[in-house]
Amino acid sequence: MGELGEFGLIALVNAGRTQTSGVLLGPGDDAAVIAAPEGRFVVTTDMLVQDRHFRVDWSSPQEIGRKAIAQNAADVVAMGAVPSAFVVGLGCPADTPVEFVRALADGMWAEAGRAGASIAGGDMVRSPLIIISVTAFGDPRRAPIKLSGARPGDVVAVAGPLGHSGGGLAVLSAGSAELTAEFAEMVAAHRVPQPPYEAVLELPDTVEVTALTDVSDGLLADLGHIAESSGVAIDLDSAALSDPALEAVGKALGVSPLDWILAGGEDHAFAATFADSGDLPDGWVRVGAVRAGSGVTVDGTARTGPAGWESFA
Amino acid sequence: MGELGEFGLIALVNAGRTQTSGVLLGPGDDAAVIAAPEGRFVVTTDMLVQDRHFRVDWSSPQEIGRKAIAQNAADVVAMGAVPSAFVVGLGCPADTPVEFVRALADGMWAEAGRAGASIAGGDMVRSPLIIISVTAFGDPRRAPIKLSGARPGDVVAVAGPLGHSGGGLAVLSAGSAELTAEFAEMVAAHRVPQPPYEAVLELPDTVEVTALTDVSDGLLADLGHIAESSGVAIDLDSAALSDPALEAVGKALGVSPLDWILAGGEDHAFAATFADSGDLPDGWVRVGAVRAGSGVTVDGTARTGPAGWESFA
Fold first, then answer.
1. The domain at B155-298 falls in which architecture?
2. Is the ipTM of this complex over 0.90?
3. Given A2, A9, A30, which is nearest B75 (Cβ)?
């Protein structure tokens, strides 16, 4: 990268890209300009640190780029907003191959496209290890869906698989090429989460979502935020959460897959509470209920053990 | 920091802060919500890496925080936009003292306040060294002032001191406590740049600014971006750039201060081109002229030597 220099690199990662129409001014000036047709925008940011949030021997640069964008897009969608643009700060050692950076950018653009948006700008700096900082924007087409609106009597539901990323991480950690091949789908889910954006973005206006989040830290931890913000209790039904695809992995590794489902995190599925009015919308599965009280229980019982990812634990 | 955990830390850095009215939803949910009354917003992002962009033995955490916000606010203002909010990603070793983080946040909030905005959210992660990623937003109250609008015949002018940050860095690099005390003002300018936001934000509507940037990489480099984007040449007048305050520092270190003025960067002064219609607005000093052609010259001559900061040079 040292040979190309910062401006050469910026040209390289932007070559051949097409901005979506919400990006009114893209890279190349002091700042980008993004449309905010609703007169407001949602924003979220995440920092990913090499060997803490990703490993270059476990994931390709495309996969790392996709995951970095996916986890931020999921936060935007978890507000009920439509992704409009991303900006990316990238720190890399000077001897990072240019091909690595191009592939990372390819992965970012691919996932940005899946979310309906593009990458409007960024910053590239020298750093002793790879650091990726993504900031994502969205248009709130409805009132933002916050953590604080759940009420006793609501239904708790999820969209998208849970525990697959945790299962894939356990397979990778086991270090067996055989297991990695046998459970390739699970490993892929860890390398590139696929948040089911459409499950939220295509919710009919008539559906009353009272609280919404993406499952980034672990289901117990993330529903814990909803319970605490809303001043309610949540009880999960373990039978509704069980997943045959995970049972086989759990058996091979001698681990109960329920830990991955409840505390694995990084799946970037969505978890929501709905006013109880009969059928759930497409893509959503009922997994529990909102009660008066506080805390999150499973089958009526408080669970011991890890609740989810904690940055400084 | 390990003892407090991520959520304890988030509570700590947000305790006692008051969001400005443009922050419609602050920290605590999946994403923040920011007002964009013009139906669009400007956005810029910078990543700062410990020992590359700042040193904890040269600057206090307050100073590092102020500088991180100032350089991003300057980019927003350099589009002719009014800062509305910031989000901050912070990576730190687990043994970073909590007081360091609180002081860093204090510095960030102080400079955000000087720019008229607040810090709407962020992310905190563990990292082997300190990484600060700031993303800044602004309301473009007029059409964005781009790099590409300079025309032959325009006046080149600057607002704010140039070369003081470079002079201060040279003093710090000399490692003499005596010189650091003697030139304390210059050292302070390096530790905390003070972009003269008001020189841009209070420009009368009648003034025709054709191109605008902040001086982050160095005057020659930043005006080079204007010259290239606009397809023009810029000639600087070295006499208009001379600064008595820098002469004394230059003499003490045996260096020509013109290098700091032309290539020092990090002052976050503003450089602009104005349609030539007589007097310049308050706070602006004429330092050159736009001509037909290409490139940036000083007193009619191409300058050899460093043009400014290059991230991967």
1. Alpha-Beta Complex (3.90)
2. yes
3. A30
